[in-house]
Amino acid sequence: MTATISVIIPNYNHAAYLQQRIESVIKQTLQPFEIIILDDCSTDNSVEIIQSYASVYPTIQFIKNDINSGSTFAQWNKGVALASGDLIWIAESDDTAENNFLETLLSNFEKDAKVVLAYCQSKRIDAGGEVTGNWKNFTDDLDNDLFKNDFVWNGQDYIESFLIHRNTIPNASAVVFKKAAYSQTGGANNFLKNVGDWLIWLQILTEGNIAYSSQLLNNFRYHSESVIAKSIKNVDKTVFKDWYGYDMRCALIQYLRSKKMKLSKKAQIINNRYLSIDRGNLGLYKLKNGNFFQGWKLVLQTSFFPILQSGFIKKAIFNKIK
User: Fold this and answer.
1) Same domain assignment for residues 260 and 162
2) What 3-state DSSP class applies to 229?
3) Residues 239 and 222 in one domain
4) Confidence at residue 63, expressed as pLDDT on a 0 to 100 scale
5) Is residue 83 part of a domain?
6) Cα–Cα distance measured from residue 42 to residue 65, given in angstroms and rounded to the nearest whole number
7) CA gap 94, 17 in Å, rounded
8) Do residues 218 and 238 share a domain?
9) Which of 21, 30, 234, 238 sits most deeply, having the most CB atoms within 10 A of its CB?
10) How confident is the model over 102-137, as pLDDT tens digits?
11) Residue 169 domain-assigned?
12) For residue 172, what are the contacts with CB-CB under 8 A and spacing of at least 6?
């Protein structure tokens, strides 16, 4: 029996891209079971665009928030809770996809029952939809050859080799995952603003295998109002940027403890090393913000445990704070 697919389109003020997004979903060669469009109190004409499609396509369910949730990942959780499909595609409202995206990724779940998450390589596109490159170079320093071809890996092995280092699945629109695996983890963490997707991929992959397609089936749009661009535009140097991973790595440790699970020994060592570096960066930010006690405490913790890292002390003394 073929698995059913629910598509969730969370939207906030992406009227400029909504028509392309919705069209790329309804034109899939493999039609989804349902399309759930969530609007988070947009102030542009997003609602009018969504309603024009919902009035024509019976598979579209439109839900508009009365109050802005303030969290992309709260919308994820809401959408997944509403979904009745076996598989979930969170199709971000400013991205697009090739027409065979769902058909290609679904085949991975049919071939291997242990696959809990499948994703594909992504093109980079600009605000006008022009292709400016792809995301393979994002993983080249980790493995220059592996991502040239399709593969299926054990989830824990993938975490140890790749995902514990950085979010090697940089765009949610490139991913299809099992609803049951997502629900088993308890869903996305609403408190992580920029890296909540990274954490949920890590959590899901403790449940099974990952499948990767080297085909460029997802179009990841980078523009001035994208989540990444808006985060980078924040020039407030007193704010610790959560994409460093400190909060995410702490949340991952808490999650594993709550589930009485462990990563491999190597993955634990790698995670602790990154956590230590991120702790040092957090300390530098607290110093910059005038919180000298907490700042120096974190800098000294990083500098002397688990290995000597005197560079953070030098940065703190000479005010070399990013």
Assistant:
1) no
2) helix
3) no
4) 98
5) yes
6) 9
7) 5
8) no
9) 21
10) 999 999 999 999 999 999 999 999 999 999 999 999
11) yes
12) 90, 92, 197
**Residues 101, 206: one domain?**
yes
CB 159 within 8 A of CB 267: yes
Do 34 and 174 have their domain in common? yes
Element (H, E) at 242: none
Amino acid identity of residue 91, one-letter, is: A
Report in angstroms the alpha-carbon separations of 235 from 67, 239, 240, 322. Answer: 27, 9, 11, 11
**Domain presence at residue 313:** no
pTM assigned to the model:
0.89
Whether residues 222 and 185 fall in one domain: yes
Tokens of 59: 């598979």
Residue 261: give the domain boundaries. 234-303
Residue partners of 204: CB distance under 8 A and separation at least 6: 116, 117, 155, 177, 178, 181, 182, 185
Contact status, residue 228 vs residue 172, Cβ threshold 8 Å: no
Quick check: is 205 in a domain? Answer: yes
Longest dimension (CA), the chain: 64
* Inter-axis angle of helices 265-288 and 246-258, nearest 10: 140
Strand stretches in 135-271, DSSP E: 151-154, 175-178, 209-221
Beta strands in the chain (DSSP E): 5-11, 34-39, 60-64, 87-90, 96-97, 115-125, 131-134, 151-154, 175-178, 209-221
Q: What percent of the chain has pLDDT over 90?
A: 73
Grouping H, G, I as helix, E, B as strand and the rest as coil, residue 216 is: strand
Q: Shortest CA distance to 276 belongs to which of 306, 238, 234?
A: 306
8 Å CB contact between 295 and 283? yes
Tokens representing residue 271 in the block: 């995670």
SS3 sequence, 24-69? Answer: HHHCCCCCCCEEEEEECCCCCCHHHHHHHHHCCCCCEEEEECCCCC
